[in-house]
Specification:
This protein is α+β, with helices and mostly antiparallel strands. Helices cover 21% and strands 36% of the residues. The chain has 2 domains: 45 residues; 132 residues.
């Protein structure tokens, strides 16, 4: 009987230890691409970018990663739940008016599917949240026709449903252990367990 209890506890413990600890972008590898003049024409990339604590792309001095495609200087930074683009200081620049002129960020593994986004920008004209779309693991931002000022930028904040299925497993495991202990205690006393 003891062996069965130990086996149950060990099985539940190993399930709990195998829980994914990450619920954000930090430490993950995402794919970034630039498309122009439409979403079927790849202009630059795809680039695999490891999300870390510092700015991932800075032009200049980087020579790859979109530096030859859009006006410099700019930075592209990824945080645990944000994509941040900042331009300048420089001269004003305009993105081409085309069906699509912008970024596609894919493989955004946050531990749960993306369920929503918020978008903010400064120093841009002709750029609104309607330029941004998303799927469960990607974000697309169409900068077509937008004009960036001498200092400008945008931020996309990713939202996910908080993954909590392991909490239910832990609760169930606790109840199972309590039930087993109660059953064992009552069987030693000669009583039948009441459930």
């Amino acid at each position: 009987m003891k062996i069965a209890y130990v086996a149950i506890v060990l099985a539940l413990g190993s399930t709990c230890l195998s829980m994914p600890a990450r619920a954000g972008l930090l430490g993950s590898t995402i794919t970034a691409s630039y498309y122009y003049p439409d979403l079927s024409t790849l202009r630059d990339g795809p680039f695999d970018i490891v999300v870390g604590p510092t700015v991932e792309i800075s032009c200049p001095p980087d020579v790859d990663d979109f530096c030859g495609v859009i006006s410099v200087p700019f930075t592209l930074d990824f945080t645990d739940n944000q994509i941040i683009y900042q331009y300048g200081p420089g001269s004003s620049a305009a993105f081409a008016t085309a069906p699509f002129d912008g970024f596609v960020f894919a493989d955004l593994d946050m531990g749960a599917p993306i369920t929503g986004i918020t978008f903010s920008s400064f120093g841009f004209s002709e750029l609104s949240s309607s330029a941004v779309s998303f799927t469960g693991d990607s974000v697309t931002i169409n900068l077509s026709g937008a004009e960036e000022g001498a200092t400008s930028g945008w931020t996309v904040t990713l939202q996910t449903a908080v993954p909590e299925p392991k909490a239910l497993e832990l609760f169930g495991a606790g109840l199972l252990v309590l039930l087993c202990l109660r059953t064992r205690h009552q069987s030693r006393r000669g009583a039948h367990p009441q459930i």
